[in-house]
Amino acid sequence: MKPVSPRLRDAVYKANMELAGSGLVSGTFGNVSGVDRVAGIFLIKPSGVPYPELKPAHLVAVSLETGEIVGGRLRPSSDTPTHLELYRAFPGCGGIVQTHSEHASALAQAGLPVRCLGTTHADHFRGDVPVTRALTRREVEGDYERNTGRVIVELFRKRRLSAVEMPAVLVRQHGPFAWGRDAAAAVENARALEVVAKMEILVRATGARVTPPARFLVDKHFLRKHGGRAYYGQSRRS
């Protein structure tokens, strides 16, 4: 196993601080992790450490293979086993964020998906952001955090969802997880999720009968920003 790169440590630290200033978390809620698949490790925020006190050296290194702590003196986030399950199941995932953002958490507690009702949503998520089933008593009482990850993976496999095209999920009665190609992208997707979750709640409040956008419109908006033929924004070489 290779040592943790300073570049990854810096990126994950910056993503956690970005999350802290995003309005998506309060107190010590939430966490960001980032993975180095070549080195076989991921870094994650330590449990219960206030964001103003967080230092890059506090981040905890965890083995992708074993799930064991391989670097750091502090205990990792309690959500670490969930992150581990997602990294193992979703090869394109380079960073993961867990928040208790207000609107996304409200929908998760209600057991409602974030429906794709317009192009703002489709710019980030290629369809409805799904909600998992409830965990059973056995799943909660035995290895709860790992089973949280497993029900997410179960949902994506059952519905044949792409974790690249759908980089977020609502865990029923709990809250949202989001991910991306790296830790910074995961935070961006968590922000987008909260925006569209708020829109979903506002639309539901109108009581209007809503017609979802045509699939070709959803695909157009998603694919112009993502994938090999994306043309939105500037080239990374610029």
Q: Structural class, please?
A: alpha+beta
Poorly predicted segments: none
Average pLDDT number: 94
- β content, as a range? 5-15%
Quaternary organization? single chain
Number of helices: 8
- How many β-strand stretches? 7
How much helical structure, as a percent, in the residues?
Answer: 25-40%
Spell out the helices and strands N to C: HEEEEHEHHHHEEHH
Q: What's the main sheet like?
A: 7 strands, antiparallel
What is the gyration radius calculated from CA atoms? 18 Å
Q: How are the strands of the biggest sheet laid out side by side?
A: 4-3-2-1-5-7-6
Approximate shape: globular
Distance between the termini: 35 Å
Record the SSE blueprint.
Elements: H1 6-20, E1 31-36, E2 41-44, E3 60-63, E4 69-71, H2 80-89, E5 95-98, H3 102-110, H4 119-122, H5 137-141, H6 144-158, E6 168-171, E7 175-180, H7 183-206, H8 215-223
Antiparallel strand pairs: 1-2, 1-5, 2-3, 3-4, 5-7, 6-7
